[in-house]
Amino acid sequence: MAGSVQNQQQQQLLGIIEEEEEKLQKQKEETEGNNNNNNNTRKQVGSDMAPTAGNSIHRSGSRPQLDVSKAEIQGNVEEKYPTILLPNQSDDLSHLALDIGGSLIKLVYFSRHEDQSADDKRKRSVKERLGLSNGNRRSFPILGGRLHFVKFETRKINECLDFIYSKQLHCGGLESHYSDGVTDQNGIIKATGGGAYKYADLFKERLGVSLDKEDEMNCLVAGANFLLKAIRHEAFTHMEGHKEFVQIDPNDLFPYLLVNIGSGVSMIKVDGDGKFERVSGTNVGGGTYWGLGRLLTKCKSFDELLELSQKGDNRTMDMLVGDIYGGLDYSKIGLSASTIASSFGKTISEKKELEEYRPEDISLSLLRMISYNIGQIAYLNALRFRLKRIFFGGFFIRGHAYTMDTISFAVHFWSNGEAQAMFLRHEGFLGALGAFMSYEKHGLDDLMVHQLVERFPMGAPYTGGKIHGPPLGDLNEKISWMEKFLQKGTEITAPVPMTPLAGTTGLGGFEVPLSKGNTLRSDASALNVGVLHLVPTLEVFPLLADPKLYDPNTIDLSDHSELEYWLTILSEHLPDLVDKAVASEGGTDDAKRRGDAFARAFSAHLARLMEEPSAYGKLGLANLLEMREECLREFQFADAYRSIKQRENEASLAVLPDLLVELDSMDEESRLLTLIEGVLAANIFDWGSRACVDLYHKGTIIEIYRMSRNKMRRPWRVDDFDEFKERMKMPCHKRALLFVDNSGADIVLGMLPLARELLRRGTEVVLVANSLPALNDVTAMELPDIVAEAAKHCDILRRAAEAGGLLVDAMINTSDSSKENSSSVPLMVVENGCGSPCIDLRQVSSELAAAAKDADLIILEGMGRALHTNLNALFKQDALKLAMVKNQRLAEKLVKGNIYDCICKYEPAS
Ligand SMILES: Nc1ncnc2c1ncn2[C@@H]1O[C@H](COP(=O)(O)OP(=O)(O)O)[C@@H](O)[C@H]1O
Ligand SMILES: CC(C)(COP(=O)(O)O)[C@@H](O)C(=O)NCCC(=O)O
Ligand SMILES: [Mn+2]
């Protein structure tokens, strides 16, 4: 073997990393005067064997294929909602509810997704072993699916009918998929709002369906209660340009005042589920703003009117206290000069005609007048019934910063801070959701927070509008939308401007909004809510010490510089990712087109988040990293790193036997250390880290692994190894959950040998891997093959894998075919329920939850699962967190260290 060449390369690599480290160290010393005395002992572990071909990797199809044959865009592509025909696509949409208001029609519809993950051998054996059954699965629609939110203007009801027809939403029903004794409800759609009466005949005529009318107030309350109980961070406050999400305790929700600002305004005192009273209302509402605004400004759309207000100055319209008092405050009763004394009052003393006023100023003055008035009446009603919390909903709000600030100001001011105004992310959909909930068999009654996953609103920019023809899937639609956005430049990225207010200046007074010139995104509200995925099999990880206190994210993205840093990292990584993704799909023209669309969609989301970090709800680094994966899947890139993973697995499996021989020659204590070092060193194979990807150009997988291993020096940045070692001298753990990370060396030369050690000591091992691909992470689908391949070289692994039911096919190839497998504790594989490099332990698969019940050791591995998330998580059982930090800033922030530092954090059961 070309040992000397390899050694040379190895030395070079070592040199490169050390240079980098020296530079960093120098910088650090310069700034901090840091004197770090590292222990320089090095070990030579590893072998010089060349890689051979080996195992096969499953393709992991995450969703059904879309039939885009004969697809065409109809009409003008420049049109806002181009018509797209997918004549051959059949869809799985079903279940629809409507709220037909005076201004807008709101649709909530459910699309079922098949349980796509095939019931493979691994799953079956896991089910058997962990005693899982399908018994707790209920009928429709709790099988899993998505809730979508769409709206149309009531005056354009035909667009809505077309939309329903094109997606066949009116036909989807219970009977078509299930036959569990439900009466035939096809042909009936739940609907609320006045339009359920007014347009009943039209629906019958055009779609052949009857509208089953539900009481509007009932629906509003049911919708609000559902959202506040089931959606994490549904509610938020908005004061002086600052948005903050509030977590409402579902057990401490009532009583509250619900103020729904639609065309008109309803104020409802809510005391419980189905327990409410409409206590007040006002006819001065959203319809008033839009109606008067249209007359006074000649605006053609609500959006245009709202957008004008961004650039307005209401002082040209409103009579201020200062106008009356010669520029002075009326301080005796607490009125500052800038307080509005009389909305539109200034226009009486001037001889100007309507045309001489700026439409911008008119719009703003009107918006303030109406918002403030509603805020004030809401406060009075809260006072009347001693309610502390007021939730505002309805489409008038439109997630518009200035509207929310005005309302909040009124409530805060008049109540002396006693009452709090809160807003809802699904503001306009309360009634429609309530109508949806009123289906007898919707199955959502006892749905819990952990079963709902809100995805970024990938589809939002393309929902609504005219879509004709048979039901359509949306891939092509999305792509053409993305292509259009390129032509239109900034449309999708233009944020709803956040208006940093100049501060309030006394009673009822605001300065003018500062925001200048930004356009309001055409459908801002749709972009603010994502699609709700219902995943009934998700559970809270049972070993969390206190799920209520658990927060997966360790990095605070509300710090703007932090957010900017991570968004830039993701954005810089994009070209390389697109290359990989396109190559993974064969580099075809279709793949290129999808890759391009993915890049645009993802950049658009990043740009949006840069402008308004909380646009999609509370944002953590884990959400950002998951968004990237979701976005890839959205454009049907099932596994961008497929071939890289395969290559690295093969190379690593080839050197595994030598590593095992080397390990077996050691005594127990040094073996344990070598194993942990091995895990940390092998975690360097991370295709999500810029620094690491740069490294890969400089050597082969095995060279880099060896180099990384040679560099392992204790003490590590966080080094609890000695405590862990002490624990390992005691009676062995019963069952260990190993949350594994990357493919290749990471799993094969790092985690598998550690698993083998635990098995050897009599601990059952459960390898916990991703359900769906994310970067180069190994998936639960891929693991059995890798284990089988490794088991060819190792009796311990083979027996354990057999005992765990992992080696059904692979048996034939084993070198030693003796079948005395009963002596071993089992090795199993379970999926974690997610498809992200990070893990939120509030939402894990039922498999994992079941496996966790008997576990007394948790090992979390990798930067995503053990550093970005969960570094601070507390568990009921012993926990070991192992990772190499592959990002300088993260190292500084989290552990005051440097890139390539290692973390070995051991925490005994708390
Ligand atoms: N795209 C839009 N078109 C018309 N009005 C809108 C739009 N977006 C927000 N609005 C505002 O929302 C109000 C309607 O709110 P909504 O909650 O849907 O009530 P309703 O059920 O009475 O239609 C309108 O009167 C207007 O102020
Ligand atoms: C996505 C990751 C968390 C994956 O790391 P892993 O869990 O595989 O150790 C990591 O690659 C990451 O944070 N990357 C972005 C930082 C960077 O490029 O430096
Ligand atoms: Mn990873």
UniProtKB/TrEMBL annotation:
Its EC number is 2.7.1.33. GO terms for molecular function: ATP binding; hydrolase activity; metal ion binding; pantothenate kinase activity. Pathway: Cofactor biosynthesis; coenzyme A biosynthesis; CoA from (R)-pantothenate: step 1/5. Residues 576-894 form the Damage-control phosphatase ARMT1-like metal-binding domain. Keywords: ATP-binding, Coenzyme A biosynthesis, Hydrolase, Kinase, Manganese, Metal-binding, Nickel, Nucleotide-binding, Transferase. One of its GO terms (biological process) is coenzyme A biosynthetic process. CDD domains: ASKHA_NBD_PanK-II_Pank4 (cd24123). It comes from the Eukaryota. It holds the Pfam family Fumble. Its cofactor is Ni(2+); Mn(2+). The keyword Cytoplasm does not apply. The keyword Manganese applies. Residues 1-67 are annotated as: Disordered. Residues 53-63 have a biased composition (Polar residues). It catalyses: (R)-pantothenate + ATP = (R)-4'-phosphopantothenate + ADP + H(+); (R)-4'-phosphopantetheine + H2O = (R)-pantetheine + phosphate; (R)-4'-phosphopantothenate + H2O = (R)-pantothenate + phosphate; (R)-4'-phosphopantetheine sulfonate + H2O = (R)-pantetheine sulfonate + phosphate. In the C-terminal section; belongs to the damage-control phosphatase family. Phosphopantetheine phosphatase II subfamily. This is Pantothenate kinase 2. It comes from Glycine soja.
